[in-house]
Design goal:
With about 100 residues, the protein is mainly α. It is built from three helices and no strands.
């Protein structure tokens, strides 16, 4: 099994990612679903550019949702990042 990446981030960065994820799930997904349903009503899907465009956008949004979920899931705790910064600062004060 491949190693899982970690995504260090600040609390502000985490909030931005969560806001983007919430927007994609609550606003973009339903909008794309309605676009797909509307495009299906136009008829032949093989020559339907509206349908293909909506499906492409759906694939992009779903990929971004998975990416954001992974980044949020595999982040180290913000507290750990703060501890590291405090230790590094203390080390610099003592040795330089």
């Amino acid at each position: 099994m491949a190693e899982e990446k970690t995504y260090p981030m600040t609390a502000e960065g985490l909030a931005k990612l969560q806001a983007e994820l919430d927007d994609l799930i609550t606003n973009k997904r339903p909008a794309i679903t309605s676009r797909i349903q509307e495009a299906r009503s136009f008829g032949d899907l093989s020559e339907n550019s509206e349908y293909q465009s909506a499906k492409d956008e759906q694939a992009f949004v779903e990929g971004r949702v998975k990416q954001l979920q992974q980044m949020i899931q595999f982040r180290p705790g913000y507290r750990c990042i703060q501890c590291f910064k405090e230790r590094r600062h203390a080390w610099k004060e003592n040795f330089f």
